[in-house]
């Protein structure tokens, strides 16, 4: 075929495809134009006039009402539940796995999955109205291990951060490299709750991960980043004599904050902290915890290496963290357990704890 004919055909096809996408985008505007919708929150406590068409989660966020969300709206975390008394339509298949029968009866829904298409009546816990947004300067970025970075951020002048040790923030990444969109994920606060002008997160690189890729490859000291929070119900109850803390990887973040909280408040609890890692290169904050052990006799640090390498010259605990837990913790009497880390590690540890008499009322965790 003549080259000019090929060129003409390609040109015509491109024109047809451009015309089709213009028609699709126009018809979306015409048919999906939901106009202004009214969101009545908590029986008239707040009434918002919003443009319809976006998810309830992002519509509320644009009105500075921040609903917890760890997955950025992908329906994989189940954290973004709000009560929708009117205006949501039937439960979507993407919501099904996250809603218990009790929650369905209370009209709970995943706010990231529901589109605002008309007036709605909502129930939102009052404490979520106090969640703040911060635009922080990254003061330092530190490699804690080969795949974990500490991000220390300065809270802007005129604002203060107040949180319960153990809670998490939502961190927003910006477009970078080939990634064109902004995204956000949950990260536990690792800094002390007494520090109101800075906040620190420990972010482990997930290969191919959107937000961790941003932190590990694009973020620089001096950059401005957006955070919202604090969120979450992983915090100290303390109705006991002893606290058993268990973490792996970046799960150390909220546990560090909890340990400092107990120490700084002068609480009487004895603390045993079991930290599970593969080999020495996964250990961090070791000197700091060794110093705390010296300063506070009620605290002990038990690092466990599952696969120590010969060059590690490791003489401490070997095996999974559950081995040390089973050996050292005799019973659940007078104790509470706080766990943070991967689902596999947490499930195995919870099994050991329950065999010692811990119950759902004395075990608290954040899995990620
Ligand atoms: C309450 C809470 C607190 C959290 N705190 C921390 C924290 O302190 N530090 C921290 O590093 N992370 C923490 N996370 C996890 C964090 O929110 C992100 O899920 C994680 O950083 C991955 O984000 P991403 O955008 O890089 O990956 P995504 O782009 O979301 O995922 C990329 C791919 O990796 C998979 N993937 C996602 N997460 C993991 C994972 N953890 N391990 C293996 N594969 C994964 C996904 O299924 C997907 O296929 C927390 C999560 C929750 C719910
Ligand atoms: S934001 Fe994660 S399920 Fe809705």
Summarize the structure.
The chain has 368 residues and is an alpha/beta fold. Helix content is 25%, strand content 29%.
Detail the topology: elements first, then pairings.
Layout: H1 3-31, E1 36-41, E2 46-51, H2 56-62, E3 81-86, H3 101-105, E4 108-110, E5 120-123, E6 132-143, E7 148-154, E8 168-173, E9 183-188, E10 198-204, H4 210-217, E11 224-231, E12 242-248, H5 252-264, E13 270-277, H6 286-295, E14 299-305, E15 317-318, H7 321-328, E16 335-341, H8 343-355, E17 363-367
Parallel strand pairs: 1-5, 12-13, 12-16, 13-14, 14-15, 16-17
Antiparallel strand pairs: 1-2, 3-4, 3-5, 6-7, 6-11, 7-10, 8-9, 8-11
The structure holds flavin-adenine dinucleotide and FE2/S2 (inorganic) cluster.
């Amino acid at each position: 075929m003549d080259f000019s004919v090929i060129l003409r055909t390609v040109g015509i096809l491109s024109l047809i495809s451009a015309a089709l996408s213009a028609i699709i985008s126009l018809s979306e505007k015409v048919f999906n134009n939901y106009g202004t919708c009214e969101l009545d929150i908590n029986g008239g406590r707040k009434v918002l006039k919003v443009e319809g068409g976006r998810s309830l989660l992002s519509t509320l966020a644009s009105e500075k009402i921040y609903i917890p969300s760890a997955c950025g709206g992908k329906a994989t975390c189940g954290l973004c539940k709000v009560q929708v008394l009117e205006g949501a339509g039937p439960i979507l298949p993407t919501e099904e796995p996250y809603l218990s029968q009790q929650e369905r009866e209370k009209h709970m829904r995943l706010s990231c999955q529901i589109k605002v298409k008309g007036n709605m009546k909502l129930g939102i816990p009052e404490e979520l109205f106090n969640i703040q947004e911060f635009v922080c300067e990254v003061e330092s970025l530190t490699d804690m291990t080969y795949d974990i970075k500490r991000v220390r951020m300065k809270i802007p002048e005129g604002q203060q951060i107040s949180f319960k040790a153990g809670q998490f923030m939502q961190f927003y990444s910006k477009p970078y490299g080939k990634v064109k969109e902004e995204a956000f994920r949950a990260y536990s606060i690792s800094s002390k709750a007494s520090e109101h002008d800075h906040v620190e997160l420990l972010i482990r690189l997930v290969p191919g991960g959107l937000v961790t890729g941003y932190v590990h490859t694009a973020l620089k000291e001096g950059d401005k980043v957006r955070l919202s929070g604090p969120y979450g119900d992983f915090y100290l109850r303390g109705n006991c004599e002893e606290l058993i803390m268990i973490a792996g990887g970046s799960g150390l973040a909220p546990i560090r904050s909890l340990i400092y909280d107990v120490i700084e408040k002068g609480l009487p609890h004895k603390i045993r902290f079991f930290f599970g890692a593969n080999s020495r290169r996964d250990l961090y904050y070791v000197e700091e915890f060794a110093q705390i052990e010296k300063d506070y006799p009620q605290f002990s640090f038990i690092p466990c290496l599952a696969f120590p390498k010969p060059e590690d010259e490791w003489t401490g605990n070997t095996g999974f963290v559950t081995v040390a837990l089973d050996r050292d913790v005799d019973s659940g009497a007078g104790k509470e357990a706080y766990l943070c880390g991967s689902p596999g590690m947490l499930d195995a540890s919870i099994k050991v704890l329950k065999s010692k008499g811990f119950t759902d009322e004395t075990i608290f965790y954040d899995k990620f």
